TrEMBL record:
Regions annotated as coiled coil: 239-266
Family: Belongs to the cytidylyltransferase family.
Region (Disordered): 1-35, 313-367
Biased composition (Polar residues): 315-324, 347-359
Species of provenance: Gekko japonicus
One family name in Pfam for this protein: CTP_transf_like
PANTHER family from the UniProt entry: CHOLINE-PHOSPHATE CYTIDYLYLTRANSFERASE A (PTHR10739:SF19), CYTIDYLYLTRANSFERASE (PTHR10739)
Catalytic activity: phosphocholine + CTP + H(+) = CDP-choline + diphosphate
Domain of life: Eukaryota
Keywords annotated in UniProt: Coiled coil, Lipid biosynthesis, Lipid metabolism, Nucleotidyltransferase, Phospholipid biosynthesis, Phospholipid metabolism, Transferase
Name under which the protein is recorded: choline-phosphate cytidylyltransferase
Segments forming domain Cytidyltransferase-like: 80-208
Enzyme Commission (EC) number: 2.7.7.15
Name of the coding gene: PCYT1A
């Protein structure tokens, strides 16, 4: 029994080799599952001011060509990416993923600007600086986070953090009285461009919320937030409650309409079935009627057959013409029963004194 069991297990293993989900293979165009990698996912990225830096080793930047070829494991390419990262979304994560994958051996440092700098140069944020720091810390592509990052990168800051390249999208970023805050980085050959993710940004998310403000205000009122917490006036609060009741009534009416439509549809389907069955039965009845009482129906044939039989029964039998003639014997005499010997006489005809006359009737005439 053991050799058979081992053979079955080996055959199952051979079947599973090179097979992806649902039995698909690479030849089918469906990629197989990747091996699970848990490195760097157990804890958030540390802050730069919490790390010890070994300043005994000199800081020598690597060139772009050297970075592309690959550096030793103990000397990764240090790439810096900065931003506000308010309402951290997939566009931010994709930009950091591109920065992490610029070179084969990359150490990604992410700088997050403080509330003070952001409010002065860009505008008010939804999340405070601590929330934004924490959001960036928990991105899987980030190796180190710089709090209170500068708005414009200085040579001293680049040297302190031993930055080799700065990653950002190639669109000129005009701010703080400059047409492009990354202009001097590009001129120094330290700029590594990334691509923006279309259709998603912090401004787009805020625009959706502002556009549908009433919807989200009613949503949070339903979830237990007070009008004071939402900065909603007393009149608007009552208006939202009234709109909520109206929406419930509309929903009920819509549900009733849908149910009534379903009922009407079912009735129509049943009526169509009944009509079809009635038509089939009526055609069958008409066909049977015509077969019985039509011009060439069974009844006409029955009448013809009955008529023929009646005529045959009524008409006298004729002897065939080719039959031989036979001498017929004289018919026996037949006498009238009125008198014993004499037949009746006409008043003007024969005389009373004549002798009695007998009438002979043949057998055929008697019949």
């Amino acid at each position: 029994m053991e050799p058979q069991g081992s053979a079955r297990l080996n055959s199952r293993k051979r079947r599973k080799e090179g097979v992806g989900p649902n039995g698909a293979t690479e030849a089918d165009g469906i990629p197989t599952k990747m091996p699970r990698n848990c490195l760097g996912l157990r804890e958030p990225a540390p802050f730069s001011d919490e790390l010890e830096v070994d300043y005994s080793k000199p800081y020598i930047r690597v060139t772009y060509e050297e970075a592309l070829r690959g550096t030793p494991l103990d000397r990764p390419v240090r790439v810096y990416a900065d931003g506000i990262f308010d309402l951290f979304h997939s566009g931010h994560a994709r930009a950091l993923m591109q920065a992490k994958n610029l070179f084969p051996n990359t150490y990604l440092i992410v700088g997050v600007c403080s509330d003070e700098l952001t409010h002065n140069f860009k505008g008010f944020t939804v999340m405070n600086e601590n929330e934004r720091y924490d959001a960036v810390q928990h991105c899987r592509y980030v190796d180190e986070v710089v709090r209170n990052a500068p708005w414009t990168l200085t040579p001293e800051f680049l040297a302190d953090h031993r930055i080799d390249f700065v990653a950002h999208d190639d669109i000129p970023y005009s701010s703080a009285g400059s047409d492009d805050v990354y202009k001097h980085i590009k001129e120094a050959g330290m700029f590594a461009p990334t691509q923006r993710t279309e259709g998603i940004s912090t401004s787009d998310i805020i625009t959706r919320i502002v556009r549908d403000y009433d919807v989200y205000a009613r949503r949070n009122l339903q979830r237990g937030y007070t009008a004071k917490e939402l900065n909603v006036s007393f009149i608007n609060e009552k208006k939202y409650h009234l709109q909520e009741r109206v929406d419930k009534v509309k929903k009920r009416v819509k549900d009733v309409e849908e149910k009534s439509k379903e009922f009407v549809q079912k009735v129509e389907e049943k009526s169509i079935d009944l009509i079809q069955k009635w038509e089939e039965k009526s055609r069958e009845f008409i066909g049977n009627f015509l077969e019985m009482f039509g011009p060439e129906g069974a009844l006409k044939h029955m009448l013809k057959e009955g008529k023929g039989r009646m005529l045959q029964a009524i008409s006298p039998k004729q002897s065939p013409s080719s039959s031989p003639t036979h001498d017929r014997s004289p018919s026996p005499s037949f006498r009238w029963p009125f008198t014993a010997r004499t037949p009746p006489t006409s008043p003007t005809g024969l005389s009373r004194n004549k002798s009695t006359i007998t009438y002979d009737i043949s057998e055929d005439e008697e019949d």
